[in-house]
Amino acid sequence: MGPVIGAGWQKFATFLTHAGRQQPDRRGSFVNMPVERGSTVVFPTVDDMEAQGGHAYEHQLVYGAMGNPVQHRLEQVIAALEGGSHTQVVNSGLAACTVALLAFLKGGDHLLLPDSVYGPTRRFVLGTLARFGVETSFYPPRADEATLRAHLRPNTAVIFAESPGSHTFEVQDIPMIARLAHGAGARVLLDNTWGIGAFQPFTSGVDVSIQALTKYPSGHADVILGSITVQRQEHWQSLRRTAIELGACGAPDDCWLTLRGLKTMAVRLSQQARSAYELALWLKSRPEVAHVRHPALPGCPGHEIWKRDFTDASGLFGVELDAGITQEAMIAMLDGLHLFSIGASWGGYESLVLPTSGGLIRTHKDGLPQGAAFRIQVGLENVADLKADLTRGLDGLKR
Q1: Cα 242 from chain centroid?
Q2: What residues bear N6-(pyridoxal phosphate)lysine in this entry (predicted)?
Q3: Structure confidence by residue, pLDDT tens digits, 301-316
Protein backbone atom coordinates (compact mmCIF):
# COMPACT_ATOMS: atom_id res chain seq x y z
CA MET A 1 0.00 0.00 0.00
CA GLY A 2 1.38 3.41 -0.99
CA PRO A 3 1.57 6.52 1.17
CA VAL A 4 -1.44 8.70 1.90
CA ILE A 5 -0.97 11.79 -0.25
CA GLY A 6 -2.68 15.14 0.28
CA ALA A 7 -3.71 14.72 3.91
CA GLY A 8 -0.50 16.22 5.28
CA TRP A 9 -1.36 19.65 3.96
CA GLN A 10 -4.52 19.82 6.04
CA LYS A 11 -2.61 20.49 9.23
CA PHE A 12 -1.81 23.93 7.81
CA ALA A 13 -5.36 24.74 6.68
CA THR A 14 -6.46 26.57 9.83
CA PHE A 15 -3.16 28.40 10.25
CA LEU A 16 -3.05 29.59 6.65
CA THR A 17 -6.70 30.64 6.66
CA HIS A 18 -6.20 32.90 9.69
CA ALA A 19 -2.54 33.99 9.39
CA GLY A 20 -1.93 37.54 8.20
CA ARG A 21 -5.56 38.65 8.46
CA GLN A 22 -6.72 41.98 9.82
CA GLN A 23 -7.81 41.99 13.43
CA PRO A 24 -11.38 43.37 13.66
CA ASP A 25 -12.05 46.46 15.73
CA ARG A 26 -15.27 48.01 17.01
CA ARG A 27 -15.73 50.09 13.86
CA GLY A 28 -15.44 46.99 11.68
CA SER A 29 -12.63 46.14 9.24
CA PHE A 30 -11.97 44.17 6.11
CA VAL A 31 -10.72 40.60 6.49
CA ASN A 32 -7.63 41.24 4.36
CA MET A 33 -5.11 43.93 5.25
CA PRO A 34 -4.86 46.88 2.84
CA VAL A 35 -2.08 47.37 0.32
CA GLU A 36 0.12 50.30 1.30
CA ARG A 37 2.31 51.53 -1.55
CA GLY A 38 5.13 53.93 -0.91
CA SER A 39 8.80 54.75 -1.10
CA THR A 40 9.33 57.73 1.21
CA VAL A 41 8.52 57.32 4.89
CA VAL A 42 8.03 60.66 6.66
CA PHE A 43 8.48 61.44 10.35
CA PRO A 44 7.40 64.35 12.54
CA THR A 45 10.95 65.07 13.74
CA VAL A 46 14.56 64.22 12.90
CA ASP A 47 14.87 62.45 16.24
CA ASP A 48 11.90 60.23 15.36
CA MET A 49 13.44 59.36 11.98
CA GLU A 50 16.81 58.52 13.50
CA ALA A 51 15.21 56.43 16.24
CA GLN A 52 13.15 54.44 13.71
CA GLY A 53 16.30 53.80 11.66
CA GLY A 54 17.53 51.70 14.55
CA HIS A 55 14.68 49.22 13.94
CA ALA A 56 15.71 48.14 10.43
CA TYR A 57 16.29 44.57 11.67
CA GLU A 58 12.86 44.32 13.31
CA HIS A 59 10.39 44.21 10.37
CA GLN A 60 9.40 47.82 10.99
CA LEU A 61 8.78 50.65 8.56
CA VAL A 62 12.01 52.62 7.89
CA TYR A 63 12.16 53.25 4.12
CA GLY A 64 10.32 51.71 1.19
CA ALA A 65 13.34 49.71 -0.04
CA MET A 66 13.72 48.15 3.42
CA GLY A 67 10.23 46.69 3.38
CA ASN A 68 6.60 47.70 3.63
CA PRO A 69 3.77 46.74 6.00
CA VAL A 70 2.32 43.98 3.82
CA GLN A 71 5.81 42.56 3.20
CA HIS A 72 6.42 42.42 6.94
CA ARG A 73 3.13 40.61 7.47
CA LEU A 74 4.01 38.09 4.75
CA GLU A 75 7.43 37.56 6.35
CA GLN A 76 5.77 36.68 9.65
CA VAL A 77 3.54 34.08 7.97
CA ILE A 78 6.38 32.45 6.00
CA ALA A 79 8.63 32.32 9.06
CA ALA A 80 5.91 30.48 10.99
CA LEU A 81 5.19 28.11 8.09
CA GLU A 82 8.89 27.24 7.72
CA GLY A 83 9.45 26.94 11.47
CA GLY A 84 11.95 29.79 11.58
CA SER A 85 12.29 33.03 13.52
CA HIS A 86 12.76 35.61 10.74
CA THR A 87 12.07 35.80 7.01
CA GLN A 88 13.34 38.22 4.39
CA VAL A 89 11.11 38.59 1.33
CA VAL A 90 12.88 39.49 -1.93
CA ASN A 91 11.77 40.13 -5.49
CA SER A 92 12.08 36.58 -6.94
CA GLY A 93 12.91 32.99 -6.13
CA LEU A 94 16.27 33.39 -7.86
CA ALA A 95 16.94 36.51 -5.77
CA ALA A 96 16.23 34.41 -2.67
CA CYS A 97 18.98 32.01 -3.75
CA THR A 98 21.46 34.74 -4.67
CA VAL A 99 20.89 37.01 -1.66
CA ALA A 100 21.24 34.01 0.68
CA LEU A 101 24.50 32.95 -0.95
CA LEU A 102 25.89 36.49 -0.82
CA ALA A 103 24.97 36.73 2.86
CA PHE A 104 27.02 33.71 3.88
CA LEU A 105 29.94 33.63 1.43
CA LYS A 106 32.98 35.83 0.85
CA GLY A 107 35.97 35.86 -1.46
CA GLY A 108 38.22 32.85 -0.86
CA ASP A 109 35.36 30.64 0.40
CA HIS A 110 34.40 27.32 -1.15
CA LEU A 111 30.78 26.47 -1.97
CA LEU A 112 29.44 22.95 -2.49
CA LEU A 113 26.42 22.80 -4.78
CA PRO A 114 24.32 19.76 -5.75
CA ASP A 115 24.64 18.88 -9.42
CA SER A 116 20.83 18.95 -9.71
CA VAL A 117 20.55 22.57 -8.57
CA TYR A 118 18.18 25.06 -10.23
CA GLY A 119 19.88 26.19 -13.44
CA PRO A 120 19.88 29.97 -12.75
CA THR A 121 21.48 29.33 -9.34
CA ARG A 122 24.22 27.37 -11.09
CA ARG A 123 24.68 30.23 -13.54
CA PHE A 124 24.97 32.76 -10.70
CA VAL A 125 27.66 30.91 -8.79
CA LEU A 126 29.74 30.22 -11.91
CA GLY A 127 29.39 33.83 -13.04
CA THR A 128 28.94 36.45 -10.33
CA LEU A 129 30.31 34.50 -7.36
CA ALA A 130 33.31 33.32 -9.35
CA ARG A 131 34.15 36.93 -10.25
CA PHE A 132 34.19 37.74 -6.55
CA GLY A 133 36.56 34.90 -5.73
CA VAL A 134 34.19 32.21 -4.44
CA GLU A 135 35.15 28.70 -5.53
CA THR A 136 32.31 26.32 -6.40
CA SER A 137 32.32 22.58 -6.93
CA PHE A 138 29.42 20.22 -7.55
CA TYR A 139 28.55 17.05 -5.69
CA PRO A 140 26.22 14.22 -6.76
CA PRO A 141 22.83 15.09 -5.23
CA ARG A 142 22.38 11.56 -3.85
CA ALA A 143 25.92 11.41 -2.44
CA ASP A 144 26.38 9.36 0.71
CA GLU A 145 28.32 10.72 3.67
CA ALA A 146 31.71 9.39 2.55
CA THR A 147 31.30 10.80 -0.96
CA LEU A 148 30.17 14.19 0.29
CA ARG A 149 32.97 14.32 2.86
CA ALA A 150 35.48 13.80 0.05
CA HIS A 151 34.20 17.01 -1.60
CA LEU A 152 34.82 19.14 1.51
CA ARG A 153 37.76 21.52 1.58
CA PRO A 154 39.28 23.45 4.49
CA ASN A 155 37.60 26.62 3.16
CA THR A 156 34.15 25.12 2.55
CA ALA A 157 31.77 27.70 4.02
CA VAL A 158 28.39 26.62 2.58
CA ILE A 159 26.82 23.38 1.46
CA PHE A 160 23.80 24.19 -0.68
CA ALA A 161 21.01 21.64 -1.09
CA GLU A 162 17.87 21.36 -3.21
CA SER A 163 15.62 18.48 -2.29
CA PRO A 164 14.08 17.17 -4.44
CA GLY A 165 15.85 18.56 -7.49
CA SER A 166 13.30 20.37 -9.63
CA HIS A 167 14.14 18.50 -12.86
CA THR A 168 15.47 15.10 -11.83
CA PHE A 169 13.85 14.86 -8.35
CA GLU A 170 16.72 13.47 -6.29
CA VAL A 171 15.82 13.49 -2.59
CA GLN A 172 18.78 14.52 -0.46
CA ASP A 173 19.61 13.30 3.03
CA ILE A 174 19.42 16.72 4.67
CA PRO A 175 20.09 15.63 8.29
CA MET A 176 23.28 13.88 7.12
CA ILE A 177 24.34 16.92 5.07
CA ALA A 178 23.72 19.21 8.06
CA ARG A 179 25.68 16.98 10.43
CA LEU A 180 28.63 16.86 8.05
CA ALA A 181 28.50 20.60 7.28
CA HIS A 182 28.32 21.70 10.89
CA GLY A 183 31.16 19.36 11.82
CA ALA A 184 33.26 21.15 9.20
CA GLY A 185 32.18 24.64 10.29
CA ALA A 186 29.99 25.19 7.22
CA ARG A 187 26.37 26.32 6.92
CA VAL A 188 23.55 24.53 5.10
CA LEU A 189 21.36 26.50 2.68
CA LEU A 190 18.34 24.64 1.30
CA ASP A 191 16.11 25.47 -1.63
CA ASN A 192 12.93 24.11 -0.04
CA THR A 193 10.46 25.24 -2.72
CA TRP A 194 9.16 21.74 -3.60
CA GLY A 195 8.80 20.88 0.09
CA ILE A 196 7.12 23.99 1.50
CA GLY A 197 5.02 22.80 4.41
CA ALA A 198 5.92 19.15 3.73
CA PHE A 199 9.51 19.43 4.97
CA GLN A 200 10.46 21.29 8.13
CA PRO A 201 14.01 22.49 7.45
CA PHE A 202 15.18 23.64 10.85
CA THR A 203 14.37 20.43 12.69
CA SER A 204 16.63 18.71 10.14
CA GLY A 205 19.62 20.97 10.77
CA VAL A 206 19.20 23.50 7.96
CA ASP A 207 20.52 27.00 8.65
CA VAL A 208 18.80 28.91 5.82
CA SER A 209 15.61 27.89 3.99
CA ILE A 210 14.84 29.39 0.58
CA GLN A 211 11.45 29.60 -1.11
CA ALA A 212 10.27 30.69 -4.53
CA LEU A 213 6.99 32.21 -3.38
CA THR A 214 6.19 32.45 -7.09
CA LYS A 215 5.18 28.80 -6.89
CA TYR A 216 2.61 27.36 -4.45
CA PRO A 217 2.27 30.30 -2.01
CA SER A 218 1.08 32.76 -4.66
CA GLY A 219 -0.45 29.91 -6.64
CA HIS A 220 -1.94 31.81 -9.56
CA ALA A 221 0.92 32.26 -12.07
CA ASP A 222 0.91 36.05 -11.69
CA VAL A 223 3.57 36.85 -9.05
CA ILE A 224 7.38 36.75 -8.96
CA LEU A 225 8.60 36.68 -5.34
CA GLY A 226 10.98 34.82 -3.04
CA SER A 227 11.79 34.39 0.64
CA ILE A 228 14.74 33.46 2.85
CA THR A 229 14.09 32.17 6.37
CA VAL A 230 16.48 31.61 9.28
CA GLN A 231 16.11 30.48 12.85
CA ARG A 232 19.19 31.83 14.63
CA GLN A 233 19.69 35.52 15.44
CA GLU A 234 23.24 35.68 14.09
CA HIS A 235 22.03 34.30 10.76
CA TRP A 236 19.28 36.91 10.68
CA GLN A 237 21.82 39.70 11.26
CA SER A 238 23.91 38.53 8.27
CA LEU A 239 20.89 37.99 6.04
CA ARG A 240 19.10 41.24 6.86
CA ARG A 241 22.29 43.29 6.52
CA THR A 242 22.91 41.83 3.05
CA ALA A 243 19.31 42.41 1.97
CA ILE A 244 19.50 46.06 3.06
CA GLU A 245 22.82 46.56 1.28
CA LEU A 246 21.44 45.03 -1.92
CA GLY A 247 18.11 46.83 -1.73
CA ALA A 248 16.31 43.49 -1.82
CA CYS A 249 12.61 43.71 -1.00
CA GLY A 250 9.17 42.69 -2.24
CA ALA A 251 6.71 44.95 -4.03
CA PRO A 252 3.58 45.60 -1.91
CA ASP A 253 1.14 44.30 -4.52
CA ASP A 254 3.11 41.06 -5.01
CA CYS A 255 3.30 40.53 -1.25
CA TRP A 256 -0.44 41.14 -0.93
CA LEU A 257 -1.24 38.68 -3.73
CA THR A 258 0.98 36.09 -2.08
CA LEU A 259 -0.71 36.58 1.29
CA ARG A 260 -4.03 36.04 -0.47
CA GLY A 261 -2.70 32.95 -2.25
CA LEU A 262 -1.51 31.45 1.02
CA LYS A 263 -5.10 31.38 2.30
CA THR A 264 -5.93 28.60 -0.16
CA MET A 265 -2.52 26.92 -0.41
CA ALA A 266 -3.41 23.99 1.86
CA VAL A 267 -6.49 23.02 -0.12
CA ARG A 268 -4.76 23.60 -3.47
CA LEU A 269 -1.70 21.55 -2.56
CA SER A 270 -3.83 18.79 -1.06
CA GLN A 271 -5.68 18.47 -4.36
CA GLN A 272 -2.60 18.88 -6.55
CA ALA A 273 -0.55 16.37 -4.55
CA ARG A 274 -3.29 13.74 -4.76
CA SER A 275 -3.83 14.31 -8.47
CA ALA A 276 -0.10 14.21 -9.21
CA TYR A 277 0.38 10.98 -7.29
CA GLU A 278 -2.57 9.35 -9.06
CA LEU A 279 -1.22 10.52 -12.41
CA ALA A 280 2.30 9.29 -11.56
CA LEU A 281 1.00 5.83 -10.63
CA TRP A 282 -0.99 5.66 -13.85
CA LEU A 283 1.96 6.80 -15.99
CA LYS A 284 4.15 4.17 -14.36
CA SER A 285 1.82 1.52 -15.80
CA ARG A 286 2.00 2.85 -19.36
CA PRO A 287 4.19 0.83 -21.77
CA GLU A 288 5.65 4.03 -23.26
CA VAL A 289 7.09 5.09 -19.86
CA ALA A 290 10.41 3.76 -18.58
CA HIS A 291 10.60 5.67 -15.27
CA VAL A 292 8.50 8.06 -13.22
CA ARG A 293 10.53 10.34 -10.97
CA HIS A 294 8.17 11.06 -8.08
CA PRO A 295 9.70 10.84 -4.58
CA ALA A 296 6.48 9.50 -3.02
CA LEU A 297 6.38 6.47 -5.36
CA PRO A 298 7.66 3.31 -3.66
CA GLY A 299 10.73 2.13 -5.53
CA CYS A 300 11.68 5.59 -6.77
CA PRO A 301 15.29 6.46 -5.80
CA GLY A 302 15.19 8.51 -2.62
CA HIS A 303 11.73 7.29 -1.62
CA GLU A 304 12.90 6.01 1.78
CA ILE A 305 14.40 9.39 2.65
CA TRP A 306 11.22 11.12 1.48
CA LYS A 307 9.12 8.79 3.64
CA ARG A 308 11.34 9.50 6.67
CA ASP A 309 11.59 13.30 6.32
CA PHE A 310 8.49 14.56 4.46
CA THR A 311 4.88 14.72 5.58
CA ASP A 312 3.46 15.05 2.05
CA ALA A 313 4.34 15.67 -1.58
CA SER A 314 3.79 18.37 -4.18
CA GLY A 315 2.34 18.35 -7.68
CA LEU A 316 5.64 18.31 -9.61
CA PHE A 317 7.33 15.16 -10.93
CA GLY A 318 9.27 13.77 -13.88
CA VAL A 319 8.65 11.18 -16.61
CA GLU A 320 11.24 9.33 -18.69
CA LEU A 321 10.01 7.59 -21.82
CA ASP A 322 10.99 4.22 -23.25
CA ALA A 323 14.38 4.10 -24.96
CA GLY A 324 12.75 3.55 -28.34
CA ILE A 325 10.97 6.92 -28.26
CA THR A 326 12.91 9.80 -29.76
CA GLN A 327 13.23 13.32 -28.44
CA GLU A 328 11.47 14.59 -31.56
CA ALA A 329 8.51 12.27 -31.02
CA MET A 330 8.21 13.37 -27.40
CA ILE A 331 8.24 17.05 -28.35
CA ALA A 332 5.54 16.44 -30.97
CA MET A 333 3.48 14.74 -28.27
CA LEU A 334 3.92 17.64 -25.84
CA ASP A 335 3.04 20.15 -28.57
CA GLY A 336 -0.20 18.28 -29.20
CA LEU A 337 -1.50 18.22 -25.61
CA HIS A 338 -4.66 20.23 -24.97
CA LEU A 339 -4.83 20.71 -21.19
CA PHE A 340 -1.10 20.90 -20.45
CA SER A 341 0.53 24.17 -21.45
CA ILE A 342 4.26 24.25 -22.15
CA GLY A 343 5.99 26.38 -19.54
CA ALA A 344 9.03 26.52 -17.27
CA SER A 345 7.32 27.45 -14.01
CA TRP A 346 5.23 25.38 -11.60
CA GLY A 347 3.09 25.65 -8.49
CA GLY A 348 0.17 27.49 -10.09
CA TYR A 349 -3.39 26.33 -10.67
CA GLU A 350 -2.64 25.27 -14.27
CA SER A 351 -1.05 22.05 -15.52
CA LEU A 352 2.25 22.38 -17.40
CA VAL A 353 4.79 20.20 -19.19
CA LEU A 354 8.46 20.92 -19.91
CA PRO A 355 11.09 18.81 -21.72
CA THR A 356 13.94 17.86 -19.34
CA SER A 357 16.16 15.77 -21.62
CA GLY A 358 18.91 17.21 -23.76
CA GLY A 359 19.29 20.58 -22.01
CA LEU A 360 20.35 19.80 -18.44
CA ILE A 361 23.91 20.73 -17.45
CA ARG A 362 25.70 18.29 -15.17
CA THR A 363 29.23 17.76 -13.90
CA HIS A 364 28.40 14.22 -12.78
CA LYS A 365 26.41 12.20 -15.33
CA ASP A 366 24.67 10.02 -12.74
CA GLY A 367 20.95 10.73 -12.55
CA LEU A 368 20.50 12.25 -15.98
CA PRO A 369 17.60 10.84 -18.03
CA GLN A 370 18.77 8.13 -20.40
CA GLY A 371 15.91 8.73 -22.83
CA ALA A 372 13.43 11.43 -23.78
CA ALA A 373 12.05 12.96 -20.58
CA PHE A 374 9.69 15.69 -19.44
CA ARG A 375 8.43 17.29 -16.26
CA ILE A 376 4.77 17.55 -15.26
CA GLN A 377 3.27 20.24 -13.05
CA VAL A 378 -0.22 19.11 -12.07
CA GLY A 379 -2.75 21.88 -11.61
CA LEU A 380 -6.34 21.88 -10.41
CA GLU A 381 -7.97 20.27 -13.44
CA ASN A 382 -9.95 17.06 -13.11
CA VAL A 383 -7.38 14.25 -13.02
CA ALA A 384 -9.49 12.09 -15.34
CA ASP A 385 -9.34 14.85 -17.95
CA LEU A 386 -5.55 15.09 -17.54
CA LYS A 387 -5.25 11.32 -18.02
CA ALA A 388 -7.37 11.50 -21.16
CA ASP A 389 -5.16 14.26 -22.58
CA LEU A 390 -1.97 12.30 -21.87
CA THR A 391 -3.56 9.10 -23.23
CA ARG A 392 -4.14 10.78 -26.58
CA GLY A 393 -0.55 11.97 -26.60
CA LEU A 394 1.03 8.68 -25.56
CA ASP A 395 -1.12 6.64 -27.95
CA GLY A 396 0.04 8.82 -30.82
CA LEU A 397 3.78 8.57 -30.15
CA LYS A 398 5.90 7.64 -33.16
CA ARG A 399 8.68 5.30 -32.17
Answers
A1: 21
A2: 215
A3: 899 999 999 999 999 9
